[in-house]
Amino acid sequence: MTNQRFEEELKLWKWLGDKLLGKAFNAIRIADFEDLKKVVKNALFDDVEHLLDKTGQKTPPVNPEIVAKERKVIEIEKAALDTDALIVPCRGGFLMKINEKLPVVRQRFACAHEIAHTYFFDLEKDPPCKPYRRSASRYWVEEGLCYELARRILMPTGMIKTWMDNATPPYIKDFRAMMRSFLVSGELLSYRIHDLAKWNVLMLIFELSDSNGNGSISLYKVLKSGNKLNNIHVARKGLKVKDPVLQELLSRAFKDKGEVVEEKRLNISVGNLKGEIASFGASYMGSYPPKVIAILCL
Ligand SMILES: [Zn+2]
Predict the structure, then answer these.
(1) How far, in Å, from the CA of 284 to the mean position of ligand 1?
(2) Using the 8-state DSSP alphabet, how is residue 61 labeled?
(3) Nearest 5°: phi and psi at 206?
(4) If you measure from the C-alpha of residue 133 to the centroid of ligand 1, how many angstroms do you get, rounded to a whole number?
(5) Which DSSP state fits 81?
(6) Cα separation of 165 and 75, whole Å?
(7) How far is the CA of 67 from the centre of ligand 1 (A)?
(8) DSSP H or E run through 97
(9) CA atoms 262, 226, 290, 275: torsion sign
(10) What pLDDT is stored for residue 214 in this prediction?
(11) What is the pLDDT of residues 214-258, one digit of tens each?
């Protein structure tokens, strides 16, 4: 990281820390930049969970539009936009616009993501304004945090933990049930499972190159959860599935959209991962191009 970039990012993290923790922030011993980021992130995550408590929502699906009110969003407008959503500072808070053409699940995500953006404004000013000028490095820090915060808004720890504790390997039926109950995309849910690290699983997301079902299946994303699998490197995006057993299981999942495919004690290879999988589950999770998630318990 260049010096200027570092200084810019540092200022942003410190500003967030001050806003969220006030005097307590100065009293915290912070070892280095990484530590600062961790402290500020945790403060943001706590604040988001707290927002949700304030709205009194205890069971999924979370309604993000109610949460938005707690962050001074005074009006939400569904409109024809050429982007997913945006917030506009105005007297008294923000006006949020959400693209009406998006499917509901994506509208919900867009709303949660925009709520997260309010943390980067000084809400004591009216209309709210950004405390610093635009820069590319700060833009990316902000975007990254908004993605993390959005999935916490839609899947708060308190709500999702109970589901995860009561789930059974290979968790695929639970995964489907959670997607439906929390009204989130499979990809967002897999990221949240990765954040929480409660299951020891590898989540491999596959994509079909041709939506008619005839194309080749390739790896789209690898997400890990739990501490046992940290040093496993599977492969990069784009790896074509060659293993015939895996190919067959995934094809079934792509075809039977409503079903789950489950197997115990399976020998497969994907990239660097070769050998016995204790339990395996796969399910279609929609989106375009079509995607299937495979959950592997080693
Ligand atoms: Zn954004």
Answers:
(1) 27
(2) S
(3) -115, 155
(4) 16
(5) -
(6) 37
(7) 17
(8) strand 93-99
(9) negative
(10) 62
(11) 679 999 999 999 888 777 889 989 999 999 999 999 999 999 888
Phi (first) and psi of residue 283, to 5 degrees:
-155, 150
Residues 6 or more apart whose CB falls under 8 angstroms from that of 5 comprise 137
* Confidence at 213, pLDDT banded by 50, 70, 90: low
Tell me if 86 sits within 8 A of 114, measured CB to CB.
yes
Distances (CA, A) of 80 to 76, 83, 110, 116, 117: 13, 9, 14, 22, 21
pLDDT at residue 211, rounded to an integer: 55
C-alpha separations of 249 from 129, 179, 205, 240 in Å: 52, 21, 13, 14
Give the pair of three-digit tokens for residue 208. 């079909």
Kindly give the distance from the C-alpha atom of residue 139 to the centroid of ligand 1, in angstroms, as a whole number.
Answer: 9
Cβ-in-10-Å burial (0-12, 13-18, 19+) of 172 comes to buried
**Cα of 297 to ligand 1 centre, how many Å?**
33
- Domains annotated for the chain, with CATH where assigned, are 3-154 (1.10.10.2910), 157-297 (3.30.450)
Q: What is the mean pLDDT of the chain?
A: 93
pLDDT tens for each residue of 27-56: 888 889 999 999 999 999 999 999 999 999
Strands 93-99 and 73-79: parallel
pTM to 2 decimal places: 0.93
- 138 CA to centre of ligand 1 in angstroms: 12
Residues making up the chain, counted from first to last: 298
CA of 143 to the centre of ligand 1 (A): 5
Residue 106 three-state SS = helix
Place of tokens 């070892």: 31
Residue 114 token pair: 């925009």
